[in-house]
Amino acid sequence: MGTPSDQGQTRLRGLMRVGIGGHSVSSQDLAKWKERIQAWLRAPGAQPWNVFLPPDFPEDQIVEWRSPEGEAGRGALSELPEAARRAPIRVWTPAIETLLTVAQWPGRGRGRLAQALPYLLEEQLLADPETLAFSHRETDAGIFVAVTAKERLSMWRAAMDKERLGVTFCPVTLALPWRPGTWSCRYADGQWAVRTGPYSGFGAAGLLTQVPAAFRQALAEAAKGEAVPGSITLFGGDETLRALVARELDIPVIADARPIGDGEAPGFRLGETGGAVSASGLAALRALRPALIAIALVLALGFARTLFDWVRLSHEEARVNAEMTSVFTANFPNAPVLDPARQMRQGVAKLAARAGGASQGFLAVLTDASPALASLANGALTRLEYRHGEVRCAVRLANFDALTALKHHLMRAGLAVQVTHVMSHQGGVQALVTMTRRSP
């Protein structure tokens, strides 16, 4: 057997396997969506964790991480703190894996630009464009582009998905703080990362005992454009490394002990064309989340209330229909039941007409005729009866002119009048007056 919770989970998995097209949903997929929802519902303004990948990741599973509060750690992804799993994670990829360059695009339209990038950068690419992922950021100075191998991106994503982490990938080059007129660099895990501008930089493999040739070549190219930096800031290095870089490049080098990656969101999210949402945009979206959640709850509660009312009124309608049918059958046992309410109204109208209480009945006709009958001059009402929707009255009047005047008064009151059995008698006339209400 099993516990009730185990049986419930088994039934849930069985239900989820029955889907469109026969696709099944595994427990890992459910857990992944749960993690994503939890990450979306995290506290507004939550700061991302930083995770730094080694050059051989995922073969080398040991990564470095740092929390927004500055707590650092090192280990496998499976050892990542639980707080990091519930927070956004910014994964900094090796600098040498991403080419940062500039492209010129005279046309307009982001969709066409994305298609044109492989051809604009054809001379700089060493691999088939079909195997590369392009991300870009449009600025007044040009189109800054980040190029990364799709295979490497897929491997990184697979490793993160295995741990059910919600991450964005950014080149570690752009994790280095930068300000105009300077360059920034860092040496770690046998690789140099150098940032030369807001969206530009490069990576190079090299030894700790010497500056790579790519560094010197970049300075030479900058000298041709009169863009040589006034100084270089070294992050994470000791005094020996600072002195080495300053001596070999013949340029002032400033050591900075601050951690990298804590600045504003980088200009690129690898594999997502068009770059990243700005930090202010993310803050605005996060600030709106409580309001969006509240609106969603109000809509959900309103829908639930409407559904409840609909179910309640449906049951009430069924009960009333059953009650009307029962009453109609009891009063009209020989009539077929089609529309109880309508049939009931028709039946009541017939009964009322038969009893003289309908709109064409005795009381209605007498109400209209009363003023004329009450004003009989030198006459009398000798008999009054009701039969089959007609009111018949016998009158005795002084003369024929009085009878004619009575008929005109009754017709002006909206009645159909028929005078019969007119006879003269001593001192006047007698007649039978039949009255019915005119059809509207």
What's the short story on this structure?
The protein is of the alpha+beta class.
Essential attributes:
disordered N terminus; Nucleotidyltransferase, domain 5; alpha+beta; 40% helix; 5-stranded mixed beta sheet; 3 domains; 440 residues; Gyrase A, domain 2
Secondary-structure blueprint:
Blueprint: H1 4-17, H2 27-40, E1 49-52, E2 62-66, E3 72-76, H3 82-85, E4 89-93, E5 98-103, H4 110-120, E6 132-139, E7 142-149, H5 150-162, E8 167-171, E9 182-188, E10 191-195, E11 201-205, H6 213-224, E12 231-235, H7 239-249, E13 253-256, H8 279-331, H9 340-355, H10 362-374, E14 380-387, E15 390-397, H11 400-412, E16 415-425, E17 428-437
Structure commentary:
This protein is of the alpha+beta class. It contains eleven helices and 17 strands. It has helices at residues 4-17, 27-40, 82-85, 110-120, 150-162, 213-224, 239-249, 279-331, 340-355, 362-374, 400-412, and strands spanning 49-52, 62-66, 72-76, 89-93, 98-103, 132-139, 142-149, 167-171, 182-188, 191-195, 201-205, 231-235, 253-256, 380-387, 390-397, 415-425, 428-437. The strands form four sheets. The chain has a five-stranded mixed sheet with strand order 3-2-1-4-8, with no helix packed on it. A five-stranded mixed sheet has the order 11-10-9-12-13, with helices on one face. A four-stranded antiparallel sheet has the order 14-15-17-16, covered by helices on one side. Strand 9 and strand 10 (191-195) form a beta hairpin. Helix 8 packs across helix 9. It starts with a helix and ends with a strand.
